[in-house]
Amino acid sequence: MKKLIPLGIIALALAGCVGDGPSRPVSMGPGANPAPQRSPFDGNWMGADGVAVSTLNNGRFESRTQGTGELLTTGNYTPRDPRTIDLSFYSIKSQQNTQATCALVSDSQMNCTLANGNNFVLTRRA
């Protein structure tokens, strides 16, 4: 009989863990927010020519010259699937809107194709 009592207590404790609806988020205290999920595309990327650094962060995109930091392009990106994004950006120099599609082929490389068919490669900077 003594063995049944501990098992009964365990069964009651486990029964309290089973719910019949969706679980509620756990509060982390006033003003606390969980860290946003980081996209595998977010970070700093260098073109093969080494002229500009492109920064992707939370759906935003911009590129700046490597030497002076001058803003070259600004825009946004939208994930198409877990390994592909669509870029939409404005070139300050040409004053034109441009689109590109980029595929994440590894953690450190994206292969991109502009709307006009030209290809370029971006390599993640540490």
Task: Please tell me about this protein's structure.
- It is built from one helix and eight strands, in the order αββββββββ.
- With 126 residues, it is mainly beta.
- The protein has a domain at 43-124: Lipocalin.
- The protein has an eight-stranded antiparallel barrel with strand order 1-2-3-4-5-6-7-8.
- The longest helix is centred in the first third of the chain and has 12 residues, at 4-15.
- The termini are far apart.
Give a concise summary.
It holds the Pfam family OMP10. With 126 residues, the protein is mainly beta.
Give me some keywords for this one.
single chain; 126 residues; mainly beta; Lipocalin; disordered N terminus; Omp10-like
List the helices and strands and how they pair.
Layout: H1 4-15, E1 43-47, E2 52-57, E3 60-65, E4 71-81, E5 84-91, E6 96-106, E7 109-114, E8 119-124
Antiparallel strand pairs: 1-2, 1-8, 2-3, 3-4, 4-5, 5-6, 6-7, 7-8
Keywords: Cell outer membrane, Lipoprotein, Membrane, Palmitate, Signal
Organism: Limoniibacter endophyticus
Family: Belongs to the rhizobiaceae omp10 lipoprotein family.
Average pLDDT metric = 80
CATH architecture of the domain at 43-124: Beta Barrel
Which percent band covers the strand fraction?
over 45%
Q: How many DSSP H or I helices?
A: 1
The CATH topology of the domain at 43-124 corresponds to Lipocalin
Could you describe the largest sheet, including whether it forms a barrel? 8 strands, antiparallel, barrel
Question: Termini distance?
Answer: 64 Å
Number of strands: 8
Helix content: under 10%
Order of H and E elements? HEEEEEEEE
Report low-confidence residues grouped into runs of 5 or more: 1-28
Structural class: mainly beta
The dominant shape is globular
- Please give the radius of gyration in angstroms: 24 Å
Per CATH, the class of the domain at 43-124 reads: Mainly Beta
Describe the strand arrangement of the main beta sheet, using strand numbers.
1-2-3-4-5-6-7-8
